[in-house]
Amino acid sequence: GDSVTQMEGPVTLSEEAFLTINCTYTATGYPSLFWYVQYPGEGLQLLLKATKADDKGSNKGFEATYRKETTSFHLEKGSVQVSDSAVYFCALSHHNTDKLIFGTGTRLQVFP
Amino acid sequence: NAGVTQTPKFQVLKTGQSMTLQCAQDMNHNSMYWYRQDPGMGLRLIYYSASEGTTDKGEVPNGYNVSRLNKREFSLRLESAAPSQTSVYFCASSAVLETQYFGPGTRLLVL
Protein backbone atom coordinates (compact mmCIF):
# COMPACT_ATOMS: atom_id res chain seq x y z
CA GLY A 1 0.00 0.00 0.00
CA ASP A 2 0.87 3.65 -0.15
CA SER A 3 3.22 5.03 2.49
CA VAL A 4 5.30 8.06 3.44
CA THR A 5 8.68 7.89 5.17
CA GLN A 6 10.23 10.86 6.94
CA MET A 7 13.57 11.34 8.63
CA GLU A 8 13.40 10.88 12.36
CA GLY A 9 13.79 13.84 14.63
CA PRO A 10 14.31 15.87 16.48
CA VAL A 11 16.23 18.10 14.14
CA THR A 12 18.07 20.70 16.19
CA LEU A 13 19.43 23.82 14.49
CA SER A 14 20.71 27.23 15.36
CA GLU A 15 18.86 30.26 14.06
CA GLU A 16 19.71 31.14 10.42
CA ALA A 17 20.92 27.59 9.66
CA PHE A 18 19.86 25.71 6.52
CA LEU A 19 17.10 23.16 6.96
CA THR A 20 16.41 19.95 5.09
CA ILE A 21 13.80 17.42 6.20
CA ASN A 22 13.74 14.33 4.00
CA CYS A 23 10.54 12.73 2.78
CA THR A 24 10.13 9.78 0.41
CA TYR A 25 6.97 8.05 -0.65
CA THR A 26 5.68 4.80 -2.07
CA ALA A 27 2.56 5.04 -4.17
CA THR A 28 0.99 3.89 -7.38
CA GLY A 29 0.41 6.47 -10.07
CA TYR A 30 0.96 10.16 -9.48
CA PRO A 31 -0.10 11.30 -6.02
CA SER A 32 -0.29 14.86 -4.76
CA LEU A 33 2.29 15.65 -2.08
CA PHE A 34 1.96 17.91 0.94
CA TRP A 35 3.86 19.33 3.87
CA TYR A 36 1.82 20.17 6.96
CA VAL A 37 3.15 21.97 10.05
CA GLN A 38 1.93 21.61 13.63
CA TYR A 39 2.90 24.33 16.08
CA PRO A 40 2.86 23.47 19.80
CA GLY A 41 -0.67 22.95 21.08
CA GLU A 42 -2.30 23.51 17.69
CA GLY A 43 -3.79 21.50 14.84
CA LEU A 44 -2.07 20.89 11.52
CA GLN A 45 -1.81 23.63 8.91
CA LEU A 46 -1.00 23.15 5.25
CA LEU A 47 2.47 24.56 4.58
CA LEU A 48 2.84 23.77 0.87
CA LYS A 49 1.85 21.25 -1.75
CA ALA A 50 2.70 19.98 -5.24
CA THR A 51 0.36 18.09 -7.52
CA LYS A 52 2.60 16.83 -10.33
CA ALA A 53 6.19 15.86 -11.06
CA ASP A 54 8.76 18.69 -11.02
CA ASP A 55 6.32 21.09 -9.35
CA LYS A 56 7.82 23.20 -6.58
CA GLY A 57 5.63 24.16 -3.65
CA SER A 58 6.69 27.16 -1.59
CA ASN A 59 5.41 29.18 1.37
CA LYS A 60 6.93 31.25 4.19
CA GLY A 61 10.45 30.64 2.86
CA PHE A 62 9.98 26.86 2.77
CA GLU A 63 10.27 24.94 -0.50
CA ALA A 64 9.83 21.37 -1.68
CA THR A 65 10.13 19.90 -5.17
CA TYR A 66 8.16 16.86 -6.36
CA ARG A 67 10.81 14.43 -7.64
CA LYS A 68 9.19 11.44 -9.27
CA GLU A 69 12.49 9.82 -10.26
CA THR A 70 13.55 9.60 -6.62
CA THR A 71 9.98 9.49 -5.17
CA SER A 72 10.93 12.33 -2.84
CA PHE A 73 9.54 15.64 -1.59
CA HIS A 74 12.21 17.04 0.70
CA LEU A 75 11.44 20.20 2.67
CA GLU A 76 14.05 22.98 2.68
CA LYS A 77 14.50 26.44 4.12
CA GLY A 78 17.53 28.61 3.67
CA SER A 79 17.51 30.34 7.07
CA VAL A 80 15.38 29.02 9.91
CA GLN A 81 13.98 31.10 12.75
CA VAL A 82 13.07 30.20 16.31
CA SER A 83 9.42 30.61 15.30
CA ASP A 84 9.81 27.69 12.84
CA SER A 85 10.09 25.26 15.76
CA ALA A 86 7.27 22.80 15.17
CA VAL A 87 6.49 19.29 13.96
CA TYR A 88 6.48 18.87 10.18
CA PHE A 89 4.44 16.16 8.45
CA CYS A 90 4.84 14.95 4.89
CA ALA A 91 1.69 13.46 3.32
CA LEU A 92 0.29 12.20 0.04
CA SER A 93 -3.10 11.75 -1.55
CA HIS A 94 -4.33 10.42 -4.85
CA HIS A 95 -6.20 12.64 -7.23
CA ASN A 96 -9.37 10.58 -7.04
CA THR A 97 -9.60 10.49 -3.26
CA ASP A 98 -9.64 12.92 -0.33
CA LYS A 99 -7.70 10.57 1.94
CA LEU A 100 -4.33 11.73 3.21
CA ILE A 101 -1.55 9.34 4.18
CA PHE A 102 0.87 10.91 6.64
CA GLY A 103 4.44 10.27 7.58
CA THR A 104 5.35 10.01 11.25
CA GLY A 105 6.38 13.66 11.56
CA THR A 106 9.72 15.35 12.23
CA ARG A 107 10.19 17.69 15.16
CA LEU A 108 12.29 20.78 14.43
CA GLN A 109 13.85 22.73 17.28
CA VAL A 110 15.54 26.02 16.47
CA PHE A 111 17.66 27.73 19.13
CA PRO A 112 18.75 31.39 19.19
CA ASN B 1 -15.07 32.52 10.35
CA ALA B 2 -14.00 29.96 12.97
CA GLY B 3 -12.88 27.21 10.55
CA VAL B 4 -12.94 23.81 12.26
CA THR B 5 -13.86 23.69 15.94
CA GLN B 6 -13.63 20.73 18.31
CA THR B 7 -14.99 20.09 21.79
CA PRO B 8 -13.84 19.27 24.37
CA LYS B 9 -10.18 20.27 24.32
CA PHE B 10 -9.21 17.77 26.98
CA GLN B 11 -10.97 14.80 28.58
CA VAL B 12 -10.12 12.12 31.10
CA LEU B 13 -12.15 8.90 31.04
CA LYS B 14 -12.11 5.68 32.99
CA THR B 15 -11.95 2.39 31.10
CA GLY B 16 -15.43 1.42 29.93
CA GLN B 17 -16.89 4.92 29.95
CA SER B 18 -18.37 6.42 26.82
CA MET B 19 -18.06 9.85 25.29
CA THR B 20 -18.65 11.79 22.09
CA LEU B 21 -16.15 14.16 20.51
CA GLN B 22 -17.79 16.99 18.62
CA CYS B 23 -16.57 18.68 15.46
CA ALA B 24 -18.08 21.49 13.41
CA GLN B 25 -16.93 23.43 10.36
CA ASP B 26 -18.25 26.67 8.88
CA MET B 27 -16.56 26.48 5.47
CA ASN B 28 -19.40 24.66 3.69
CA HIS B 29 -17.14 21.66 3.06
CA ASN B 30 -18.58 18.37 1.90
CA SER B 31 -15.85 16.12 3.32
CA MET B 32 -15.00 15.65 6.99
CA TYR B 33 -12.49 13.38 8.75
CA TRP B 34 -11.45 12.07 12.13
CA TYR B 35 -7.78 11.25 12.80
CA ARG B 36 -5.86 10.11 15.82
CA GLN B 37 -2.29 11.16 16.48
CA ASP B 38 0.04 8.94 18.45
CA PRO B 39 3.75 9.38 19.16
CA GLY B 40 5.92 7.96 16.38
CA MET B 41 2.92 7.07 14.21
CA GLY B 42 1.84 10.31 12.63
CA LEU B 43 -1.87 10.78 11.97
CA ARG B 44 -4.07 7.84 11.16
CA LEU B 45 -7.54 8.12 9.64
CA ILE B 46 -10.32 6.69 11.81
CA TYR B 47 -13.44 7.54 9.76
CA TYR B 48 -14.35 9.98 7.08
CA SER B 49 -17.50 11.35 5.50
CA ALA B 50 -17.57 12.38 1.86
CA SER B 51 -20.95 14.07 2.18
CA GLU B 52 -23.88 14.50 4.52
CA GLY B 53 -25.40 11.12 5.31
CA THR B 54 -22.38 9.02 4.29
CA THR B 55 -19.54 7.65 6.37
CA ASP B 56 -16.70 5.23 5.64
CA LYS B 57 -14.05 3.46 7.66
CA GLY B 58 -10.47 4.60 7.57
CA GLU B 59 -7.31 2.84 8.69
CA VAL B 60 -8.17 2.37 12.40
CA PRO B 61 -11.99 2.32 12.90
CA ASN B 62 -12.28 -0.37 15.59
CA GLY B 63 -13.78 0.89 18.84
CA TYR B 64 -15.27 4.03 17.27
CA ASN B 65 -18.52 5.14 15.69
CA VAL B 66 -19.31 8.33 13.83
CA SER B 67 -22.32 10.41 12.89
CA ARG B 68 -22.52 13.02 10.16
CA LEU B 69 -25.34 14.96 11.74
CA ASN B 70 -25.57 17.54 8.98
CA LYS B 71 -23.17 19.22 6.58
CA ARG B 72 -21.49 21.17 9.40
CA GLU B 73 -21.11 18.55 12.11
CA PHE B 74 -19.28 15.23 12.37
CA SER B 75 -19.09 13.49 15.74
CA LEU B 76 -16.89 10.63 16.94
CA ARG B 77 -18.16 8.30 19.67
CA LEU B 78 -16.27 5.94 21.92
CA GLU B 79 -18.82 3.48 23.30
CA SER B 80 -16.51 1.76 25.79
CA ALA B 81 -13.20 3.56 26.16
CA ALA B 82 -9.96 1.59 26.47
CA PRO B 83 -6.46 2.76 27.47
CA SER B 84 -5.33 2.09 23.88
CA GLN B 85 -7.60 4.94 22.81
CA THR B 86 -5.52 7.47 24.74
CA SER B 87 -4.51 9.84 21.97
CA VAL B 88 -4.95 13.26 20.45
CA TYR B 89 -7.94 13.37 18.10
CA PHE B 90 -8.13 15.75 15.18
CA CYS B 91 -11.11 16.60 13.02
CA ALA B 92 -10.59 17.99 9.54
CA SER B 93 -12.73 19.15 6.64
CA SER B 94 -12.23 19.86 2.96
CA ALA B 95 -13.97 20.68 -0.25
CA VAL B 96 -13.93 17.74 -2.66
CA LEU B 97 -10.33 16.87 -3.61
CA GLU B 98 -9.05 20.04 -1.96
CA THR B 99 -6.85 20.96 1.00
CA GLN B 100 -7.86 19.60 4.40
CA TYR B 101 -8.26 22.08 7.26
CA PHE B 102 -7.70 20.80 10.78
CA GLY B 103 -9.24 21.63 14.12
CA PRO B 104 -7.15 22.29 17.27
CA GLY B 105 -7.52 18.74 18.57
CA THR B 106 -8.95 16.92 21.59
CA ARG B 107 -6.52 15.34 24.02
CA LEU B 108 -8.06 12.17 25.51
CA LEU B 109 -6.65 10.20 28.42
CA VAL B 110 -8.23 6.84 29.27
CA LEU B 111 -7.26 5.44 32.67
Proportion of helical residues of chain A? under 10%
Radius of gyration of chain B: 13 Å
Largest interface: A-B, 20 and 24 residues
State the order of secondary-structure elements of chain A, H for helix, E for strand.
EEEEEEEEEEEE
Strand content of chain A: over 45%
Description:
The complex is a heterodimer of chains A (112) and B (111). Chain A is mostly beta strands and 112 residues long. Helix content of chain A is 0%, strand content 50%. In chain B, the strands form 2 sheets. In chain B, strands 2, 4, 5, 6, 9, 10 and 11 form a 7-stranded mixed β-sheet that branches. The A-B interface holds A 4, 36, 41-46, 49, 89, 95-100, 102-105 and B 4, 31, 33, 40-45, 48, 50, 58, 90, 92, 94, 96-97, 99-105.
Offer a quick outline of the entry.
The complex is a heterodimer of chains A (112) and B (111). With 112 residues, chain A is mostly beta strands.
Task: List descriptors.
heterodimer; A: 112 residues; mainly beta; 6-stranded mixed sheet; 50% strand; globular; B: 111 residues; 4-stranded antiparallel sheet
Write the layout of secondary structure elements.
The complex is a heterodimer of chains A (112) and B (111).
Chain A: E1 3-6, E2 11-14, E3 19-21, E4 23-26, E5 32-38, E6 44-50, E7 56-59, E8 62-65, E9 75-77, E10 86-93, E11 101-102, E12 106-111
Parallel strand pairs in A: 2-12
Antiparallel strand pairs in A: 1-4, 3-9, 5-6, 5-10, 7-8, 8-9, 10-11, 10-12
Chain B: E1 4-7, E2 10-13, E3 19-25, E4 31-38, E5 42-49, E6 56-57, E7 65-68, E8 74-78, E9 87-94, E10 101-102, E11 106-110
